[in-house]
Design brief:
CATH topology: Alpha-D-Glucose-1,6-Bisphosphate, Chain A, domain 4
Order of helices and strands: HHHEEHHEEEEEEEH
CATH class: Alpha Beta
Strand content: 35-45%
CATH architecture: 2-Layer Sandwich
Number of domains: 1
Shape: globular
Structural class: alpha+beta
Radius of gyration: 18 Å
Length: 275
């Protein structure tokens, strides 16, 4: 789905940066993220056109894939951390962290044509995915392209509220698969949300709770139902000096928890609607 799964990467950054001075996104970090996305989307294009399997689980060694399929059949969400490299080199974002995770769930007994109308019903996301999503509204639609405004609230020691506009494109792949690309635009941090003193600040000018967010989802219909896979790539500020060994694993792990939660919610929602 086009759900902003990587969003809670920001909460870990909140925990470690609350006492730090503001640190706007650096141009070199933004360029590194752009390069990371460029190479990631090149890989994704190969999966869409059939050069390699569409689903991450189908690209794993046979023994690993068998174990993953067993977990999916049990109703579990499987997830993994990914890394896109530039040749044989890592892509490092100066003063920032790039978070890249993938999660997959099986929507049992549900055909793709039943899934698509549900995931495109963005106006009901607050009802279905609250309190994570506080409000959502389709601003415009032109065929398979959506412009959606969402307010997301993260609660992890501190509460962080984010407004963003999402540019979402649906791309059919044959008759039994679908690819969805969602790019967060105009990201703002919101202070005192819902009050007379509410104030929005562009994310690039804030502490770095969330600077960038791309989400890529693939749906594939199989005999058992439909697989949904979501891959999130996000950019947050780095961990303050001296806290890296302790805090960085937490910062990097929160997006995984979010993917597992949101995909699990989709499974419950679509499964309920199928009956």
């Amino acid at each position: 789905m086009s759900f902003p799964g990587g969003l809670v990467a920001l909460t870990a950054a909140t925990i470690v940066s609350v006492s730090a001075v503001p640190d706007n996104v650096r141009p070199e970090a933004a360029r590194a993220f752009d390069r990371y996305v460029q190479l990631t989307e090149m890989r994704l294009e190969g999966e869409i056109n059939g050069t390699s399997p569409l689903l991450w689980i189908d690209r794993q060694p046979a023994a690993v894939r068998s174990s993953l399929l067993t977990s999916l059949d049990r109703g579990e969400v499987v997830s993994a951390r990914l890394q896109t490299r530039d040749g044989n080199k890592s892509i490092n974002a100066d003063g920032a962290l790039i978070h890249h995770w993938v999660g997959t769930v099986l929507l049992p007994g549900v055909r793709l044509d039943r899934v698509r109308p549900v995931v495109q019903d963005y106006n009901r996301y607050a009802e279905w995915f609250g309190p994570l999503i506080q409000r959502a509204r389709v601003m415009s639609r032109a065929g398979d392209h959506f412009q959606v405004a969402m307010r997301t609230e993260m609660r992890k020691i501190l509460t962080v509220t984010v407004d963003a506009d999402y540019s979402i494109d649906y791309r059919p792949i044959g008759t039994n698969a679908l690819f969805v690309r969602s790019l967060a635009k105009a990201i703002h941090m919101v202070d005192s949300p819902g009050t007379a003193s509410e104030r929005r600040t562009p994310a690039d000018q804030t502490f770095g709770f969330l600077w960038r967010l791309n989400t890529y989802c693939a749906f594939k219909e199989v005999a058992a139902g439909t697989y949904e896979q979501c891959e999130s790539v996000s950019l947050t500020r780095d961990v303050p000096f001296g806290l890296g060994p302790i805090v960085r694993p937490l910062v990097s792990g929160i997006p995984r928890e979010t993917l597992e939660f949101t995909l699990g919610q989709v499974r419950k929602l679509v499964g309920h609607k199928a009956h």
